[in-house]
Amino acid sequence: MLQEASLEPAYWAEAVNRARTIIEKARSMLQEASLEPAYWAEAVNTAVYLKNRAPTKALSGMLPEEYWTGNKINLQHLKVFGSRAFAHIPKEKRTKWDAKSKEMIMVGYCENSKAYRLINPDDPRKVEKGRNVFFIEDNKPHNSDTGSSNFEEKQSCELVIEFPLKQDEIESYRISVKAR
């Protein structure tokens, strides 16, 4: 009796290695974005989405998505996982004085449309879809304080004086300024 290929240990080893790679990417994405492990499914889906759009040696540098569909893939829409996103609120869903956008967190891409998967910080259990989105991809965690940091960085710079002074008056003209 012949053993099926799917039951051979080599087959399973390859599958386990690929799964481990995706899980490691997803874990790194969650940690870099300072997101809770509860969003592991979004991170895994995004890791797979990105893997299918990355060049591979097996296809001579071609993208798997291009190979499967035969179409040239545009990667301009790719954004940093966990980045701050401002989703447009349609006129019908806001009043004259309401904000025109809502701050969200980007956690993925919609497979069947040109939309992003977004988490609303006010209702983090719900993942919403949005097409008209502006991103801030500065690699800062979504929940970091946008003001000054916990410690003050100081830089020293020399004060340039444009009028002559005696040597004893020029001791140490230095000022400290906060780094921006």
TrEMBL record:
GO terms for molecular function: DNA-directed DNA polymerase activity; endonuclease activity; hydrolase activity; metal ion binding; nucleic acid binding; RNA-directed DNA polymerase activity. It comes from the Eukaryota. It comes from Popillia japonica. It holds the Pfam family SH3_retrovirus. InterPro entries: Retrotran_Ty1/copia-like, RNaseH-like_sf, RNaseH_sf, SH3_retrovirus. Residues 83-145 form the Retroviral polymerase SH3-like domain. Gene3D superfamilies: Ribonuclease H-like superfamily/Ribonuclease H. GO terms for biological process: DNA integration; DNA recombination. The lineage of its organism: Eukaryota, Metazoa, Ecdysozoa, Arthropoda, Hexapoda. Keywords: DNA integration, DNA recombination, DNA-directed DNA polymerase, Endonuclease, Hydrolase, Magnesium, Metal-binding, Nuclease, Nucleotidyltransferase, RNA-directed DNA polymerase, Transferase. PANTHER family: TRANSPOSASE, PUTATIVE-RELATED (PTHR42648), TRANSPOSON TY4-P GAG-POL POLYPROTEIN (PTHR42648:SF11). This is Retroviral polymerase SH3-like domain-containing protein.
